[in-house]
TrEMBL record:
<dbReference type="Pfam" id="PF12973">
    <property type="entry name" value="Cupin_7"/>
</dbReference>
<dbReference type="InterPro" id="IPR014710">
    <property type="entry name" value="RmlC-like_jellyroll"/>
</dbReference>
<protein>
    <submittedName>
        <fullName>ChrR Cupin-like domain-containing protein</fullName>
    </submittedName>
</protein>
<dbReference type="InterPro" id="IPR025979">
    <property type="entry name" value="ChrR-like_cupin_dom"/>
</dbReference>
<feature type="domain" description="ChrR-like cupin">
    <location>
        <begin position="7"/>
        <end position="109"/>
    </location>
</feature>
<dbReference type="InterPro" id="IPR011051">
    <property type="entry name" value="RmlC_Cupin_sf"/>
</dbReference>
Amino acid sequence: MSTDIFDFIVNSHKMEWQPLIENGIHYKGVFVKSLRYDESTKRSPSILLKFEPGASYPYHNHPGGEELFMLKGSCMVNEAFLEAGDYLYTPANYKHGVTSENGCEFMLNIPQEVEIL
């Protein structure tokens, strides 16, 4: 294992936003930046998501829970309004959908893959 701290820093502002495509489904208006890729699970548990105005992500389950920190803008998680600076801890097996009327950016930590319902 490296002991160089620079091997563990991600300069997300230098990364390009990528369209969110999961299992062949393109979620229009939703973009992602991978902050950490886990080779053992072949997925990124720590990501940034950006929603363009009017974008949404369908109702889904979080088998391993989720942590969300709002960076910019606002969104609705079910009936809860979140804006920049808000933190949401979603317990394991909690279900919700996300929409953003005006656009937003947030960081997610998702220990297990979500299940679209």
